[in-house]
Design brief:
single chain, 497 residues, alpha/beta, TIM Barrel, eight-stranded parallel β-barrel, three-stranded mixed sheet, 18 helices, 13 strands, binds 1-deoxynojirimycin
Length: 497
């Protein structure tokens, strides 16, 4: 009887609901084992840039040198002031009912010189207390070791362009495992290496502002991949048996649809996946860079008269060293693209985009946020989760970022609610219908915060932060209340079956 009523309701929902996913998910629940959470990063929320012994990082330096690097001329000196207001943040997390909180450690707060010879106890205590308080409140920390804030001292030595940086990172990661590993069971080595390489070393819109889009981006990626693998091995050999945690890398990708059903567009989509995700995921899960990258960049380098490929090569030993170094797949996914074949090769200057080939654009019917790159294509998340699951076969997937921005910071953020509703519905379908082993979700972001080159003009938070007030007052948006309800009910529609 109930089943009959449910079927009628489902049909009615499907017929009248403007959002076609509602009917599919009305009788589906997130299992109790699925963990909801929220994400942030040190430079974007902490502030206290020079307090209690913290050293300078490359974002401090870059923005102090030239305020013009951000849209509003502002920097992360104070940000959300979470260095002082962390207790309030934990309180908000508790009220939301999250099971996890993903935040990052500031390298130069822990090691002010960048090197492990000087440990800043006050900085360490800050994180120890935060972690302890989270755990006391039943919230599992997911800790990112590196979210783009390289100590300035290493930036001055060449940053991610020089191989030694991966050794410095390894030493720093070891210190993190030593100091916090008793409490932390989920570690992210590096957040979105593609973004930090593309925008920091490719287009120059982020620190350190270098424009090496045809070669520096590849060198940066190469050194970050080695750094990641070194940290994983340190954990594996020195800490895993006592601490029993998991170490993974967080990679970002989008989902691309072909502009037509031509073979050329299908190949352009494939290249989008290989250059966009395989660049990092292949070495970590399958061994070495995708063949299409090796071939295309190699051939072009020959045509450009170079004696070696602009894509650095891993030795066989390095391929083996990097392969298999992730205990879970952290996936940041925000948006989708249409991809159309182009292959207008330009030797001068060579670029990553030229190497990839293919023109990407947003489908005009997809809802737009206040940032050009971010439109809402929720089905893409289900497709991408299936793609990652099938291709890389990770032991576990956590969606570590997903979010929506506006410029008003409105508390009535219905657009953000629809975005999350759509993406979480697709995540749920991937989980319960497709059998993808996705175990958690940490949305971006807990708070409105410092959005890199956009400064404070873009608001990604489910909690509003008043940046005009010295208190950095936090106020819940509609999306926070909506998320609280989803976490409590484990269901995405108003009337759960
Ligand atoms: C990815 C990055 O990890 C995060 O720092 C950034 O704020 C969001 N995407 C939104 O752009």
């Amino acid at each position: 009887m109930l089943r009959g009523i449910f079927s009628i309701l489902t049909v009615l929902l499907a017929a009248f609901c403007p959002c076609s996913f509602q009917a599919d998910i009305a009788d589906k629940y997130f299992p109790q084992s699925f963990r909801f959470g929220a994400s942030t990063a040190a430079y974007q929320i902490e502030g206290a840039w020079n307090e209690d012994g913290k050293g300078e990082n490359m974002w401090d330096h870059w923005l102090h040198e030239n305020a013009g690097h951000t849209d509003d001329g502002l920097n992360g000196d104070v940000a959300c002031d979470s260095y002082h207001k962390w207790q309030e943040d934990v309180q908000h997390l508790k009220e939301l009912g999250v099971q996890t909180y993903r935040f990052s450690l500031s390298w130069s707060r822990i090691l002010p010189t960048g090197y492990p010879d000087t440990i800043n106890q006050l900085g360490v205590d800050y994180y120890l207390t935060l972690i302890k308080t989270l755990k006391e409140n039943g919230i599992e920390p997911i800790v990112t070791i590196y979210h783009w804030d390289l100590p300035e001292v290493f930036n001055e030595q060449g940053g991610w362009l020089v191989p030694e940086v991966s050794d410095h990172y390894e030493s720093y990661a070891r210190v993190c495992f030593q100091l916090f590993g008793e409490q932390v069971k989920y570690w992210v080595t590096v957040n979105e290496p593609k973004s930090t390489c593309m925008w920091g070393y490719g287009t120059g819109i982020q620190a350190p502002g270098l424009t090496l889009i045809g070669d520096g981006v590849y060198t940066c990626a190469h050194n970050i991949l080695l750094a990641h693998a070194k940290a994983w091995h340190v954990y594996d050999t020195e800490f895993r048996s006592q601490q029993g945690g998991k170490v993974g890398i967080v990679l970002d990708h989008t989902w691309s649809e072909p502009a037509s059903n031509s073979q050329q567009d299908a190949e352009a989509v494939e290249r989008e996946n290989e250059f966009g995700l395989g660049w990092y995921a292949n070495p970590v899960y399958l061994g070495n860079y995708p063949q299409v990258m090796i071939d295309r960049i190699g051939n072009r380098s020959v045509q450009e008269g170079l004696s070696q490929s602009r894509l650095p090569q891993f030795t066989d030993t390095q391929v083996e060293f990097i392969k298999g170094t992730s205990d879970f797949f952290g996936l940041n996914m925000y948006t989708g693209y249409m991809v159309q074949y182009t292959d207008d090769y330009q030797a001068n200057p060579p670029t990553y985009w030229g190497d990839k080939g293919g023109n990407t654009y947003s489908d005009p019917s997809w809802p737009k946020s206040s940032l050009d790159w971010l439109t809402s294509y929720p089905e893409g998340l289900r497709k991408l989760l299936n793609y990652v699951n099938d291709k890389y076969k990770p032991p576990e997937i956590i969606v570590t970022e997903n979010g929506w921005t506006d410029v008003t910071g409105t508390l009535d953020d219905d657009d953000r609610v629809s975005y999350y509703q759509g993406y979480l519905s697709n995540l749920l379908l991937a989980l319960v219908e497709d059998g993808v082993n996705v175990t958690g979700y940490t949305l971006w972001s807990l708070l409105d915060n410092f959005e890199w080159g956009s400064g404070y003009t873009q608001k990604f938070g489910i909690i509003h932060v008043d940046f005009n007030s010295p208190n950095r007052t936090r106020t819940w948006k509609k999306s926070a209340k909506w998320y609280q309800n989803v976490i409590a009910t484990r269901c995405l529609v108003d009337q759960c079956q």
